[in-house]
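Notes from hallway chat w/ T.B., transcribed later so I don't forget. T.B. wanted the structure written out for a chain they're using in a teaching module, and asked if we could keep both sequence and structure tokens in one place. Agreed to drop them here.
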Amino acid sequence: MTGRRADLLHDKIEDLILTGELVPGERLDEVSLATRFGVSRTPIREALMQLAASGLIDLRPRRGAIVAEIGPKRMVEMFEVMAELEAICARLAARRATESDEAQICAHHQACAAAAAASDEDAYYYENEAFHEAIDAAAHQEFLSDQTRALRRRLKPYRRLQLRARGRVQNSFDEHEAVVRAILAHDAEAAAEAMRAHIVVQGERFTDLLASLETPRGARAR
């Protein structure tokens, strides 16, 4: 139960950071957060550790938790590496996926479809994570999966935030469709290319992501 509560608190604090209510450099006090959310300090501490693992906050000696900031250049670099890692996963999944793996990928794809049809961004986000993890599993490459999950955790809040851009959920689902078709057709190169295009942040998508990060902070400053 404590773990589930920590997960919920993680998402709430993450939202406060990404919407600009908690700004880069701001100290996150465990007591204040526990009072705010009506919980003990234990799940708050666990949530902060999760946020630190994703790189959204820094845990500093004697200063505690501080909201971190990832600059645009660093963010683009991280998404570029993420795109290549996930492209490899998709390529291997197209070559190695079992019938059971394919069934799992399709099941999560259909769950994404339901969330997209309902315009439920939060539900789509969680189903999207499960979809990508199913492809990781289908690659049957444990070291690759470990590295992919680690970077995905670092980018988790930004991947979540970009889904709030207008039309992004439906576009994301359409991109998933291309990945699934390639995997089921055992077309490794097509699967890799479709996944790479799905993950990499560039052009208008990058502009939208930056706008979603900056606008709340500007609104708060006014």
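Follow-up for T.B.: Residues 2-67 form a domain with the Arc Repressor Mutant, subunit A fold (CATH 1.10.10.10). Might be a good example for the class.
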